[in-house]
Write a structure and sequence with these properties.
Layout lengths: L2 H22 L8 E2 L1 H8 L3 H13 L3 E4 L3 E4 L4 H24 L3 H20 L2 H18 L3 H22 L8 H17 L2 H24 L1
Antiparallel strand pairs: 1-3, 2-3
Length: 221
């Protein structure tokens, strides 16, 4: 009895992997519609598991879906990016301050682990690994803040951006400033682990300014 849902789950994952490849390899461009009928025919599947796969990709930030227009590959303009960063800076600084106030050995080690994973990806200059580790680093701060609503707000706001960032950065990974980005995250972690509330505010504000400026520089080119 359990083999049917298992096969369905595996099929959804396989479809998502195929479409994810089309997006990250540039076959499907930002803003381009994913034509369900054509994609289903190409993959030899029905539209029901295809739609489940698209919802999975939406949770990864790679597509956006709407009831009347279906799914399109995520595209963000400069105004949207600025608005996302404005809210992220305020909410994530709050999350970091809450984390700093509740630091214990387990939380310290989780944040250090997240930073190590990001630094390892930066040293390897692996764009996919770095993107995953980047999101995981920030998600660790949100989760350890102890405020579920704050965590959910940041996750909902940020996932689409991280998906779009990977779409845009993967083809130009060689030019990415891995060392500089790792350095900013290292400063953020240090501020939480060793600094005061004021230092957290200062470091996070500066880091988000650096992140935003670099995003706009990359995506505008």
């Amino acid at each position: 009895m359990e083999s049917v849902p298992l096969r369905r789950e595996l099929l959804k994952e396989k479809i998502a992997a195929a479409i994810r490849g089309w997006i990250l390899e540039g076959e499907l461009k930002p803003g381009q519609r994913v034509v369900e009928l054509a994609a289903a025919a190409r993959l030899g599947v029905s539209r029901a598991p295809l739609r489940e796969a698209l919802l999975l990709l939406e949770r990864e930030g790679l597509v956006r879906t709407s009831p009347h227009h279906g799914a399109t590959v995520t595209r963000l303009d400069a105004r949207e990016i600025r608005e996302i960063f404005e809210i992220r800076e305020a909410l994530e600084t709050l999350a970091a301050r809450r984390l700093r106030a509740g630091l214990d050995p387990a939380r310290r080690e989780r944040l250090r682990d997240a930073l190590r994973a990001l630094e390892d990806a930066a040293r390897a200059k692996d764009m996919r690994r770095f993107s995953e580790a980047d999101l995981a680093f920030h998600r660790t701060i949100w989760e350890l803040s102890g405020n579920r609503h704050l965590e959910e707000a940041l996750a909902g706001l940020s996932t689409r951006f991280f998906g779009y960032e990977l779409i845009r950065d993967l083809p130009r990974a060689r030019a990415f400033r891995f060392d500089a980005m790792a350095r900013e995250h290292r400063a953020m972690a240090r501020a939480v682990l060793e600094g005061s509330d004021r230092e957290v505010e200062t470091v996070f504000r500066r880091a988000f300014r650096v992140f935003l400026d670099y995003v706009l520089e990359r995506f505008g080119s």
